[in-house]
């Protein structure tokens, strides 16, 4: 490699370099797949080394030794994150865990709160100017080197040369050890299961075109990314680059063109995956690697408009508290980058965060949506930091919502067999009304087929979906936004109060088969508000009664026509053959809507103030809908 030009005293064997380490030293070791395996194994073999304290982010090679009592007498491992390989040792109390935000670990070194005597790192061969690349492990490695009294670098020709602020000059290195060996590979076991696919489906509904993503490592992020392959112009600002990003980059789904910070570059500080990935990032200007104090700084993250953070959790309680580093008293992973990115996304213009997790653990026997966090569980993310929580049963939107709404949102995305138990616990905690009905215990995935949207001629997008128990406050706000005339036309009297009891009665009548309620929603600022509701309810085996109420500023835009047709399609699936409707005699607009869809509808007198309209589905026609104001249906 031509390293001798830097001096015979600098280029040494691993044994010679390790022999320079004193007993009682505090040693930093490079991260994850970039860790210097040859130097680590040589250090462990040197029996002169005693009482050594090791600091590392993600540890792999040390997993070979943690069951050896003689190793544990000589070395103390202090880790900022507990990797899968080292987890058993953590459970057994053989290593020490340091909870720390990833963005702040470099400061712990620089401030000497954690003093370092030696740094063991791995680098690429130097270029003609003497610069080596830290390759796949920039993260906290650069800070570890800069704050250690002595730096020993394993020079490996297989280390990719990553671009960005990843370079160190040989003058910053005390000893160079030449050793070519394969880099560690870390490829998650991909579980092609229905749960992960469903979570990916729901996450894809939240992630829009042109956002900048942060996403982690594992089989669930892999599935989520697969469901984003129809998006456009996604960007990347994340801690970790994995193999799962390559297909999206090659397909031009990830272009980084719309980023507001370092456009055109995928920003990261770490790379973990296969040799294919390492070759892909090698000298690739599409990637920009920098250390964790930059990549994970929330103020830097926030410079990306529309930054979407996607991370996971071990538990989420009914108030929105998130545990992701411990299972009870047993430390399982680490704080890592989750809090940094959640706070950065909250400060980002148009940004938001998503916590994605399966609804159960331990083969379905334990709920991961819980009434309270397990004893000993740490709160990594507070209830004030979370925007969305996603399981295979749907999406819970928590931002800006009170405890009552959070309980209902989270209970309805819990596994069906735990929903009644969660509602019961919430009542005991006095989080919700004592008469609150629990969410349906059915798997409501089929309701995804009952979601659609309409773009009105003025460009307004109206989204339609089934009514949910968590809609109570939105439904209440909708009612009070209506004028007296609209309320009178819908309820046939001047209804003044829309109480919790009224909402409960409405919800109790909806079973999504024989009875159905569809809400229309529009975006208003950072939330969606209801502007229309259409419902049908069982009258007999073949006929259902249908009704609508639409906010006044959306009258004469074709919303009722659309809802009528939409509800008819759902009613047909559930065995109905006709609708009936009681309409005030003076409500000419609604009678016209019914007659337009069903030209042969029978209108008969019901009482002194209203008429009864009977509509056979076989009589339905789309005639005249081309002149409707409803616009384009998505």
Brief write-up:
Helix content is 26%, strand content 24%. It is of the alpha/beta class and 634 residues long. The radius of gyration is 30 Å and the shape is elongated.
Beta-sheet strand percentage? Answer: 15-25%
Strand order of the largest sheet: 33-34-32-31-30-29-28-27-35
Tell me the span between the first and last alpha carbons: 60 Å
Coarse morphology: elongated
Please explain how this structure is put together:
With 634 residues, the chain is an alpha/beta fold. The chain has 20 helices and 35 strands. The two termini are 60 Å apart. Helix 7 packs across helix 8 and helix 19 packs across helix 20. The C terminus is likely disordered. Helices cover 26% and strands 24% of the residues. The protein folds into 3 domains: 176 residues, Glutaconate Coenzyme A-transferase; 235 residues, 3-Layer(aba) Sandwich (Glutaconate Coenzyme A-transferase); 185 residues, 3-Layer(aba) Sandwich (Aminopeptidase). The strands form 9 sheets. It has a 9-stranded mixed sheet, with helices on both faces. A 7-stranded parallel sheet has the order 4-3-2-1-5-7-9. The longest helix has 15 residues. A hairpin with a 2-residue loop joins strand 29 and strand 30.
Secondary structure: elements and pairs:
Blueprint: H1 14-19, E1 26-29, H2 37-45, E2 52-56, H3 69-74, E3 75-79, H4 87-91, E4 96-97, H5 105-110, E5 116-123, E6 131-133, H6 141-146, E7 148-155, E8 167-169, E9 175-178, H7 194-206, E10 212-215, H8 219-226, E11 235-236, E12 240-241, H9 246-250, E13 266-268, E14 270-271, H10 275-281, E15 287-289, H11 292-295, H12 298-301, E16 307-311, E17 315-317, E18 322-323, E19 326-327, E20 330-331, H13 338-347, E21 352-356, E22 360-361, E23 366-367, E24 369-370, E25 388-391, E26 394-397, H14 403-411, H15 416-428, E27 452-455, E28 461-466, H16 472-481, H17 484-491, H18 500-508, E29 516-524, E30 527-538, E31 543-550, H19 559-573, E32 578-584, H20 588-597, E33 602-605, E34 610-616, E35 632-633
Helix pairs in contact: 7-8, 19-20
């Amino acid at each position: 490699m031509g390293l001798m030009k830097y001096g015979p005293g600098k280029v040494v064997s691993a044994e010679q370099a390790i022999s320079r380490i004193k007993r009682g030293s505090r040693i930093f070791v490079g991260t994850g797949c970039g860790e210097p395996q040859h130097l680590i194994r040589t250090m462990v073999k040197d029996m002169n080394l005693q009482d050594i304290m090791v600091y590392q982010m993600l540890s792999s090679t040390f997993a070979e030794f943690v069951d050896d009592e003689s190793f544990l007498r000589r070395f103390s491992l202090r880790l900022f994150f507990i990797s899968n390989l080292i987890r058993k040792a953590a459970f057994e109390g053989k290593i020490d865990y340091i909870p720390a935000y990833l963005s702040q670990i470099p400061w712990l070194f620089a401030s000497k709160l954690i003093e370092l005597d030696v740094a063991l790192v791995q680098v690429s061969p130097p270029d003609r100017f003497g610069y080596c690349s830290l390759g796949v492990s920039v993260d906290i490695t650069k800070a570890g080197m800069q704050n250690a009294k002595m730096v020993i670098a394993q020079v490996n020709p297989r280390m990719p040369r990553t671009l960005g602020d990843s370079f160190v000059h040989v003058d910053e290195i005390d000893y160079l050890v030449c050793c070519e060996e394969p880099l560690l590979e870390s490829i998650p076991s991909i579980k092609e299961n229905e749960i992960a696919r469903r979570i990916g489906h729901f996450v894809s509904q939240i992630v829009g075109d042109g956002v900048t993503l942060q996403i982690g490592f594992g089989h669930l992020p892999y599935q989520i990314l697969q469901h984003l392959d129809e998006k456009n112009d996604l960007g990347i600002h994340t801690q970790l680059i994995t193999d799962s990003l390559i297909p999206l980059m090659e397909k031009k789904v990830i272009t980084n063109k719309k980023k507001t910070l370092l456009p055109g570059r995928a920003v990261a500080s770490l790379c973990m995956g296969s040799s294919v990935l390492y070759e892909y990032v090698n000298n690739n200007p599409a990637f920009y690697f920098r250390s964790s104090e930059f990549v994970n700084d929330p103020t830097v993250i926030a410079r990306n408009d529309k930054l979407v953070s996607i991370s996971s959790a071990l538990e989420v309680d009914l108030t929105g508290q998130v545990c992701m580093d411990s299972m009870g008293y047993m430390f399982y992973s680490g704080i890592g980058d989750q809090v940094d990115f959640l706070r950065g996304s909250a400060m980002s213009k148009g940004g938001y965060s998503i916590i994605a997790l399966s609804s159960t653990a331990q083969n379905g026997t334990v709920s991961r949506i819980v009434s309270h966090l397990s004893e000993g569980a740490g709160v990594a993310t507070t209830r004030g930091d979370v925007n969305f929580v996603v399981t295979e049963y749907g999406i819970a939107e928590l931002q800006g919502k009170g405890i009552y709404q959070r309980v209902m949102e989270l209970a309805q995305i819990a596994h069906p067999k735990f929903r009644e138990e969660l509602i019961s616990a919430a009542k005991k905690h006095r989080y919700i009304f004592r008469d609150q009905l629990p969410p349906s215990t059915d798997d409501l995935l089929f309701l995804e087929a009952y979601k659609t949207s309409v773009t009105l001629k003025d460009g307004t997008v109206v989204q339609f979906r089934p009514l949910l128990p968590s809609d109570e406050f939105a439904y209440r706000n909708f009612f009070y936004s209506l004028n007296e005339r609209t309320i009178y036309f819908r309820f046939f009297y001047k209804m003044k109060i829309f109480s919790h009891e009224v909402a409960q009665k409405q919800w109790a009548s909806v079973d999504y088969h024989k009875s159905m309620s569809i809400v229309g929603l529009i975006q208003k600022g950072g939330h969606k508000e209801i502007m229309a509701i259409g419902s049908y309810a069982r009258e007999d085996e073949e006929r259902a009664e249908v009704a609508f109420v639409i906010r006044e500023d959306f009258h004469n835009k074709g919303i009722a026509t659309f809802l009528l047709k939409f509800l008819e399609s759902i009613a047909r699936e559930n065995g109905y053959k006709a609708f009936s409707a009681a309409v005030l005699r003076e409500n000419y607009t609604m009678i016209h809507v019914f007659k337009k869809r069903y030209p042969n509808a029978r209108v008969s007198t019901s009482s002194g103030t209203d008429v009864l309209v009977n509509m056979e589905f076989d009589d339905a026609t789309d005639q005249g809908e081309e002149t409707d104001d409803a616009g384009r249906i998505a």
